[in-house]
Amino acid sequence: MKLRMLGDSLRLRLTMSETQSIGEGQSVAETTSFPDGSVMAYVLSVAGEQVSAGMAMHQGQHQLLIKIPLSLAEHWSHSTDVGLGGDEPLYIDGLQILIEKDFDCVSPRLGDEGRDTFPNPSHSDC
Question: Cβ(22)–Cβ(46) under 8 Å?
Fold first, then answer.
């Protein structure tokens, strides 16, 4: 899962296996370790009846936790929709959240090949 942040906007991009896991009601998580020993985790969890987001300390880690309802996760994981909730971002009290399927790059970059990404629909020969 990739995380991209800009101002009050978060974008999560999930691989094929992560999208499948979310559709089965399982959480997906990643961590980033910093040179000072601190760790930031970001977690997409299937829980509750509505989308929510927050920051917390969990087991000594800073944790960004985004929760989505199982019904939404199940539908999205089996659909051809790129973004969870369709083309529109999800909004939580001014925070914009995009949860998307991660596609192959149009111009491959070193290190990105074979990363469990979805076939890019703009590649006509795929």
Answer: yes
- Are the C-beta atoms of 117 and 102 separated by less than 8 Å? yes
Put the strands of the sheet holding 52-58 in their side by side order. 28-33, 39-46, 61-68, 52-58
pTM across the whole model: 0.80
100 touches 1 (CB < 8 A): no
Copy the structure tokens of residue 4.
């991209």
Q: Are 120 and 105 in contact (CB under 8 A)?
A: yes
Q: Which helix (H) or strand (E) holds 26?
A: none
pLDDT tens for each residue of 14-73: 988 999 999 999 999 999 999 988 899 999 999 988 889 999 887 777 899 999 999 999
Instruction: Tell me the one-letter amino acid at 69.
Output: P
State the Cα torsion 91-96-99-102 to the nearest 10°. 160
Cα gap 93→53, rounded to integer Å: 10
Cβ–Cβ under 8 Å, residues 117 and 104:
yes
Residues 31 and 39: beta-carbon distance below 8 Å: yes
